[in-house]
Write a sequence for this structure.
């Protein structure tokens, strides 16, 4: 069911029975000369809608601008800075928890969002408020992606061309597919962007003159349907797994010692002391995220 189409009493009936929500997130950014800027958020929304329809779980509105500064040289690309994105997602996820949602899947279709969604999920988990996890559609079916396409490309290649072919075929510029291939980077191994073990590029344009990667001509409607259905099946299975878990098994495990540090302090240390690096609201001290990434970094 779709949250935005419902009334508040209908949502009340939902949370009386269920506590799962699906949140689609993508980007609005260049996808070569052949795919629309909406590509990522169209994919996320279509998969989230399909899974919500098949399971009956709640789908929220789509977050359609993400962390995309590495595509900024191409017209129309929109982005927000990572801290703003993280704070926004964390805030509305807390809103959902306030209404009774205790487990959330971020249905994601943009690689640049991944570390930030992981960090938001980690903050909410550490605070014990809600269990939220990131799910990136193509990473759920790596074997099929490799089987279907000779040159996958991480961005605007055959994977994403296939998904838009299935979801909204009228938006694929068929006449631009060969141009996209010939003016982009077909094989990542040819990028020359790793020098003595260091990755030297920051922006998509450093490796691809038209913003495309892989061979988008390698798509048929049959491949497109297989790809979409396989990813939707994975998401449905994830939601059913998540729903079946006990909440206590999803929340942080207790410390191995019920009074951490009590032996050293002679047992006088007050119980319930907070770890010094975590504020009560779940935000962290210091400039390094707990997954080791810097706050300003992006993919
Ligand atoms: Zn994309």
């Amino acid at each position: 069911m779709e949250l935005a189409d419902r009334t508040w009493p209908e949502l009340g009936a939902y949370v009386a029975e269920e506590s799962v929500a699906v949140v689609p997130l993508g980007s609005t950014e260049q996808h070569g000369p052949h795919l629309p800027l909406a590509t990522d958020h169209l994919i996320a929304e279509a998969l989230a809608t399909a899974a919500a329809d098949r399971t009956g779980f709640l789908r929220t509105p789509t977050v359609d601008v993400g962390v995309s500064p590495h595509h900024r040289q191409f017209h129309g690309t929109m982005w927000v800075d990572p801290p703003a994105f993280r704070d926004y997602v964390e805030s509305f996820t807390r809103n959902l928890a306030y209404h009774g949602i205790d487990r959330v899947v971020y249905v994601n279709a943009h690689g640049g969002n991944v570390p930030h969604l992981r960090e938001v999920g980690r903050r909410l988990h550490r605070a014990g408020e809600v269990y939220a996890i990131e799910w990136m559609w193509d990473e759920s079916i790596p074997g099929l992606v490799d089987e279907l396409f000779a040159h996958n490309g991480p961005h605007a290649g055959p994977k994403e061309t296939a998904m838009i072919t299935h979801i909204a075929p009228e938006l694929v510029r068929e006449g631009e597919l060969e141009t996209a291939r010939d003016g982009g980077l077909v094989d990542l191994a040819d990028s020359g962007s790793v020098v003595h073990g260091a990755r030297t590029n920051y922006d998509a344009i450093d490796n691809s003159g038209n913003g495309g990667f892989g061979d988008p001509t390698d798509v048929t409607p049959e491949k497109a349907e297989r790809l979409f259905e396989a990813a939707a099946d994975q998401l449905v299975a994830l939601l059913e797994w998540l729903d079946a878990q006990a909440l206590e098994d999803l929340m942080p495990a207790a410390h191995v010692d019920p009074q951490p540090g009590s032996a050293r302090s002679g047992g006088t240390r007050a119980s319930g002391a907070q770890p010094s690096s975590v504020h009560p609201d779940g935000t962290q001290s210091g400039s390094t995220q707990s997954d080791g990434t810097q706050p300003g970094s992006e993919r």
Notes: Residues 267-299 have pLDDT under 50 and may be disordered. Residues 3-250 form a domain with the Rossmann fold fold (CATH 3.40.50.10310).
